Each structure stands twice: as structure tokens, then as C-alpha cells.
Amino acid sequence: MNTKPGTPKKNLMLFSGRAHPELAEEVAKHLNVSITPQSAYDFANGEIFVRFEESVRGCDAFVMQSATAPINQWIMEQLLMVDALKRASAKRITVIMPFYPYARQDKKHKGREPISARLIADLFKVAGADRIMTVDLHTAQIQGFFDGPVDHLFAQSILARYLKDNYSGRDIVVVSPDAGRTKLAEKWADDLGGVPIAFIHKTRDPLRPNEVVANRVVGEVDGKLCVVIDDMVDTGGTIAKAVRQLLDEGASDVVMAATHGVLSGPARERLSQCGAREIVFTNTLPIPDEKRFPGMTVLSIAPLLARAIQQVFEDGSVTSLFDGDA
């Protein structure tokens, strides 16, 4: 087949919002591309202005933004970047949200509530996004909220490899911090060589968000190294209570692994004092020095994002990155 003279080659362009430029720079290095220069600033009243400094016509655009605080500002900035790309004739726009914002509100718990996770998907669709790439959604069904391809990446391979390298030979039990994450705990248990699982049964008062009323451990943890797994840690209350509960029930050590370190408010204090031997996160969200402490390890998600971007760009398989298990 003869290509017409002047038919453009596919052209990968990477764009980054201002929320977490370090992660975007790292992804760019792995891809061997540079981040497309842009000017972005805030007007006095808080409105955001974005403009790309070079042509994006016909490009395969990947727009990265990590939804950290102030979360609504960064969502808006990413929406404006997508809109600018659509209006400047980018060929395909992939929105990369290492941490999907508003993912906790994925259904109505009571009447008269929004389904915020669905609204986020609608906003990006209307802005012009063709596909979404994200890491460890709070619940997998959020993929169905976006009417287009969603690449749902898993940080488990990175976290589990780190734990295998550092804690092999220990008597491990994987602990889910609530009954809803036992499926995930089973995957982790397989990954760590078929170890047993336990979970913490907790009750909440529906009128008091971020607060747990009571815990009890279901499963055998006495004398074992407990690996507590979760998708995100926000204020750290649930995790701190879980760690103390496990130590009270005779666990020899507790290690915590989670993908997203939101770490709002008292999280640093709670986590550093909860008695866990180590707390491991990835850098899907920026974790500045003031939120870190000696027992915290932050692993990079950039190699995984870069490999997924490469597969999407080359029309390859993202699922293959997870041994066909995505």
C-alpha cells in the first residue's frame, strides 16, 4: 500500500499539568520524549489559563495530572488541557489519572447523593478525552462509567515485588483492612506464594465519614508478619487502628502497602506512630518531604505508566503487562 506523500507519521506527545511534574518528568525519561512546553497560570479570581507552545495537530496526546490537593483545581486544569488539545486537532487524547478523583463516591449510599465518579468520567468525555488510563481504581466498575477504553493499571506487581525482595522467608499473612477488599487480598496472597489471608471486620457510623467504630480480626495472625493492603490511605485512621489491632492479636510485625498516599491532615502523625514496621506507597500522588517519615518507602509508578503509554501508542496490549491478568 502506498502512503500518500505528506501522510504524517504517528507522533506521541506527552503533556503534564502542574500537580505532580516530577512523575511526568520521570515518565518522559522512560519514554525518551520531552514534555510538550505549555504556559499555565491562574488569574486573580482562580480561573486557569492553559496554552501549548507548539503544534499538536494530528498527535497522539497523553495528558497527565495527579489529583492531589487542591483536587478541584487540578481536575479543572486537566479538563482545560483536554479541551485545548481537542480544539487544536489532536488525533487522539488519552487522559492519564494515576489517582482517579472522587472514586469513593461510585454509588448512592443514601438518597439525594451524587455519583461523583461517574460525573468525572462524563466531564472528561465532554471535554474530548478518547480514553482514560488510571491506576488501582477504588472499585473496578468505575471503568464502566467512561464510554470508551479505560486502561486500568495495577500497582500490585510493583508493591508485591518489593515485599518479596525484602520479606521473603517470613511467615506472611495478607490482611485486608475491610471485608470488601478480600478479593484483592486473595490476588496478593497468590502473588506472595499462596500465603493465607485475614481481614478486619469493621463497623462504621454512616453519618461520620473517615471514622471506624469497631474492629475485629477474622483469620489467624498470631506470630505472623501481617501485610496490610489497600488502594489508598487518606487520613490514616483506618490503617492505624488496623495495625494496632493486629499487634494486639499477636502479629509479630505489620507491613502496610497501598497504591495511593493521599495522606490528608493527621495521616503522617498517625502512620508514623501506629507501630507498623514499614509503610509502602507508590508515587501516583506527590508525597512531599513533610509528609514522609523514616518508616515510609515510596516506589515509582513511572516505569509502569511509561510501558502502558508505549503499548497504547503502538496499538499493543496493555493487558500483557500484567501476565494477561488485567
Descriptive notes:
Helix 1 crosses helix 8. The protein has helices at 21-31, 71-87, 116-127, 156-167, 182-191, 237-248, 267-272, 302-313; strands at residues 12-16, 38-42, 48-52, 60-64, 92-97, 131-135, 150-153, 172-176, 197-204, 212-218, 225-233, 253-261, 278-282, 296-299. It contains eight helices and 14 strands. The model has no long low-confidence stretch (mean pLDDT 92). The protein is an alpha/beta fold and 326 residues long. The relative contact order is 0.12. The chain has a seven-stranded mixed sheet, sandwiched between helices. A five-stranded parallel sheet has the order 1-4-5-6-7, sandwiched between helices. The chain has a two-stranded antiparallel ribbon with strand order 2-3. Strand 12, helix 7 (267-272) and strand 13 form a beta-alpha-beta unit.
Task: Name some characteristics of this structure.
5-stranded parallel beta sheet; 8 helices; 326 residues; alpha/beta
